[in-house]
Amino acid sequence: MRFLHCTEWRIIMGRLDGKVAVITGGNSGVGAATAKLFAKEGATVVITARREAALKEVADEITAAGGEVYAVSTDISKPEDPEALMQKVMDKYGKIDILVNNAGIIRRVPMHEMDAADFRRVIDIDLNAPFIVAKAVLPAMMEKRAGKIINICSMMSELGRETVSAYAAAKGGLKMLTRNICSEYGEYNIQCNGIGPGYIATPQTAPLREPQADGSRHPFDSFICAKTPAGRWLDPEELTGPAVFLASEASNAVNGHVLYVDGGILAYIGKQPK
Ligand code: GCO
Question: Annotated active-site positions, please?
């Protein structure tokens, strides 16, 4: 490990120096934070999303800070798009070292009112797409006998709650896809791990934090702070240290694991009501 350069953000360590990392959903929240830190750590980052405008903003920020970035607008739920994307990355850089399956959506609807089409759409983006994208990168990683796949799981890989049936089903599935990729490709020196974010202040959770019409806190906001030993929502940046660890050689013997970055939620029975 060595100190490489000092950006206006902070001193970085070059822990991903020379690596090529593909991050799906790199346009906001967890994906954007991960892309920025990976670039600071020396990786060339390929960020994908459907909407070009937001993707460009993140790419410009990375470039302005001296990072190497390639932004590709693509629909990862269609098998032909990830295949074309991986071909572009292989043509441009000749390898893919790291994949972060981060893109995801959520629909918050009571299950008995949810359309089957909406359920399918969530499964498509949150579970089928990670399979499709991982399938597209695996051959290059197998050939090189090295690779890191990080699947962004959730508290809902372990827990349920009202209104998130499709999301919980997908994220529970993604945890098992993580273990299966580990089982099936560990012999190729491919490590597949998950990160299970707790409640993170991102656009996805913004509706759960919005103050009420009378100015009081959203009940879910107070609920989550009481359920989290840390007593607060987490920042997307707080996931990036664990992501760098799972993307770097420091984690070569860690495989099939989901690292929960939840401020302690899964360890905690919750605060006794006053
Ligand atoms: C919800 C939240 C969560 C988070 C996160 C938790 O409605 O409960 O949106 O599902 O998005 O994934 O880990």
Answer: 167
**Rounded Cα distance, 123 and 140, in Å:** 26
Cβ atoms of residues 211 and 228 within 8 Å: no
The average confidence (pLDDT) of the chain is: 94
Task: List all residues 6 or more positions away from 17 whose beta carbon is below 8 Å from its beta carbon.
Answer: 4, 41, 42, 43
Query: Tokens 């913004």 — which residue?
Result: 206
Question: Helix H segments across the chain?
Answer: 29-40, 52-64, 80-93, 116-123, 129-144, 165-185, 219-227, 240-247
Mutate which of 199, 202, 209, 260 for ligand 1? The one with the most ligand atoms within 8 Å of its CB, which is 199
Write the residue with the smallest CA distance to atom 10 of ligand 1: 156
pLDDT, average across residues 230-244: 94
pLDDT digits (tens, 9 = 90+) for 133-182: 999 999 999 999 999 999 999 999 999 999 999 999 999 999 999 999 99
By alpha-carbon position, which residue is closest to atom 3 of ligand 1?
A: 199
Q: What is the pLDDT of residue 271?
A: 79
Whose tokens are 């994307």? That residue is 85
Q: Is the CB of 261 under 6 A from ligand 1?
A: no
Using alpha carbons only, what angle is made at residue 240 by residues 237 and 245, rounded to the nearest 5 degrees?
Answer: 160
Report which protein residue has its CA nearest ligand 1's atom 9: 205
Q: pTM score, two decimals?
A: 0.93
What is the token pair recorded at 119? 């359920």
The residue whose CB lies within 8 Å of the most ligand 1 atoms, and thus the one to mutate among 105, 152, 164, is: 164
